[in-house]
Amino acid sequence: MTTPSPSVRLPVVVHSEQHGQQGSGVLLTADTVLTCAHVLGNAYTAWVSVPGRAERVLCQVIWSDQRLDAALLEAPESLVLPRGNQYRAKISLLATDRPLPDCEILGYPRVQRYGNGRLESDQYRGTLLPLAGLVRRTMVVELDAPPATEPADGSSPLAGLSGGPVVAGDGLLGIVREIPRGRGHRRVTCVPLRAIAADADFLVAFTQATGRGFPSLTALTRHSSTDSPYEQEYGEAVGAAYRRTRVFGLDELGRRAAEWDLDTAYLSLEAAAREHDTAPVPQRIDELLASRPRVLLRGDAGAGKTTLVWWLAAHAADGTLGPQLAELNGLVPFVVPLRTLRARGTGFPSPAELPGLAGLMVDSPPDGWAGRVLSGGRALLLVDGLDEVPQESREAAHAWLSALLARFPRTRCVATVRPLAVEPEWLAAEGFEELTLLPMRDQDIQAFVTAWHEAARLDGDDPEALTSLEQDLLQQFLNNPTLSDLARTPLLCAVICALHRLREGFLPQTRWALYDSALQMLLGTRDDRRRIDAPDGIRMSVEEHRQLLQRLAAWLVRGGQTEFTREQALHRLNRTLPGMPRVAEQGTPEEILTHLLNRSGLLQERTDDVFQFAHRTFQDFLAAKEFVEDDLVPELLRHAGEEQWHDVLLLAAGHCSRRELPVLVEGLLTAGSAERDWDLKATLYVLAALGAQHAAWLSEPLHRRIRDAVASVLPPRTTEQVQQLAGLGPYVLPLLPGPHPDGRSDEHVIEVICAVGGAEAVPYARGFVSSQFAYRLAFHWRSFPLATYAREILVRLDFATTPLPVSTRAELAHVDLLGRVAHVGFFGDFTGEDLARAIACTRPDRVEIFSNAVLDGVEWLRDCAVTPRSLTIKDCPRVTDLLPLTELRGLEVIQLQDLLLRPDDVRALAAMPGLRLLSLPQVIALGPLDLEALRAARPDLDLRTVRGTRTV
Fold first, then answer.
1. CA 142 to chain centre
2. Integer distance in angstroms from the first to the last C-alpha of the chain?
3. What is the mean pLDDT of the chain?
4. How many C-beta neighbours within 10 Å does residue 273 have?
5. Which of 433, 797, 872, 883 meets the CB 3.0–4.6 Å disulfide criterion with 895?
6. What's the pLDDT at 34?
């Protein structure tokens, strides 16, 4: 029998043999159960049975409070399906004093037994009465109907229901405590989850058992009995729509391989937060999203922005996000594909229109449902493609999003945009933090290649050949840095995989050539390789396909669109086909369009009767071809100041002839020289330099003019200019100025050098090791050959005031090359053994540990060969026992942030004789913490706290 998926609506049986009681319970996680304390008595263990699971499991009591009448059990293994191992209950907090109807109580009461007393679950509906039970601080539910006739012995027919969940929708409000006499068994007294979550010992027990904090409580003000069933249907529809994505190059293998499950396709890419005072440290996007309720995510074409949106939507709806993003589980995702709004010609959506934007296969929602979701803070708003809103409409988009979030301020939101489409801090006033997706690391590329070939093997007829090709491509990436640099986005990496398979190992050498070859593969060889001979009676050459598609692409670019309807496509075909009689005679415009949709591999149906190119880059590539071939380079140049046209301009350079390319490049230089906006000037000069790289021959005076133009915008003045200039690669390095006497421009020059990276940039980095901004060189170790950079750059830096950041195991493996480092910061998941080994090599005075989800204690510091004088621990949720720090002699400074702290530990730390400073910003004290008493006891101790420190 299959075990049901975990849910607050899945009650479990709790049986204490020692106490002789049977009750009910509810899963808080896959291996923790909440029940009533009186069910367990003084027992230390209890048996738990889950519906659908054949055997019961003996669980340990890890917390019990007789006053609250609640207890927490921990199972030795997951009680549910492996897919549900990341499950966490959604906890609701009643935020109204009005009666709340349509609540449910679930459990295993005596009245529901059958046969020889065998248990069966039961379900009751009732109204929660917020103003009842105020004196005893309990929660009261009145059942809609009498549950059953009272037994002859006068006992309650609902005996055995204690510990059962009290639910509104999919939110857990509390657990059943008792059935008072005298009300016909229709009144149920319950323990509110709010009271349990406020207990310090409960929070410690839960955190130690699960390795993460207790779920945040979602305010509940309104509820409809139709909401929960609809939300389940909506979630299933979201999963069906977004759990699979089309991966480039696999469609030639058949539908099964082409539609890649996002669990396989998704890679947790790296991103960096926009920092004003320090260099950003790369972290996995999951980690960065976890602590940021609102994010504006910037990323280049093909960087994986839309894939991330789909992955978040599918997994949030299904409740299967991992520990770092567990707070998003159960939120209702509203995906807003802005390109679709543009294609439909509609305005920005109202709250009621949000569920229908994605064209999900689900019925219309109950009246007011979206508003209730948003009001309750249960929505996850995913706004995809702000850059696809025309420039003149972006302020309207800003106003719409601002108004929506102002009306529903507890809504979490991720919005995506290309890097330069909107100015920095465009949404800062709305509480958005900016993240930028980073190029894939070498190990990310290897993981992607492996996953791509694994998907190809699903339908491939020669698995051994695919394995051989996979190994060959992985080796090419290891031996050819130029090829690796081409594969830094998921899209380009997929293109390379596909072309490598098609060409049996031979690959193009430039980005433009990759796209050109990809189109050739899709339009020219795809059906030939599959031995398909005009199944629809239409046969077109590669160039005929291109001519039809490039006219459609150019029309979309001119209109600032990426999606189109069938009617719009037919209109374009009707204008194009008279000039292509060989194609026109093979079918009607409708048949030609059907052929393009079915056979080209470049067009996709996004929603009913709405289509798009497989990726916007292919649209831009074909549009650029049309503009060049139609002698419309002057039209392109007229749009040089518009960000949406920049990729088209760049790709047009590859289509230009020897005669046309100088016109394009000189036009960009002229536009740049006339531009007063310094950022745009730099952009145009960079586009000119990149365009010139397509030339087999260009006059030397024009080359010199390009170099002078680029040099004129150096040193860069903004982070945006740094990103643009770094796009020139090694070309820009010899043009960069050296260190300035007062260091005024060094910071951004260093950022360009590090963004270019690689062995060629090491000598330029060496020139800045004495700059006042040399510390920024330490934050980009990963961009260079690790050993070379450690020996030539890092050993020359002064780490007295800034840390050496270590964020990967590869970096950790090279710290022994550095000798003594005064200040080391560890970012990410390292074990205590890893940290102890690194500290032994570097012998630091100051150690900082950030965002570590696996570190489960600080005992390892006792065995370190060196004791640091200063220790910082931030955002390490499994570190709860800090008493081992009191044994460290020589520790003078302790800084703790984003941790759960026990008051006894804080008092013990404050009593350490040699401690000079104890800083506790933004921590949660699990119980009363008298800071004034601590200061009185240790007047010599600098005890620092801020408003973020709180007690629960």
1. 42
2. 42
3. 86
4. 17
5. 872
6. 96
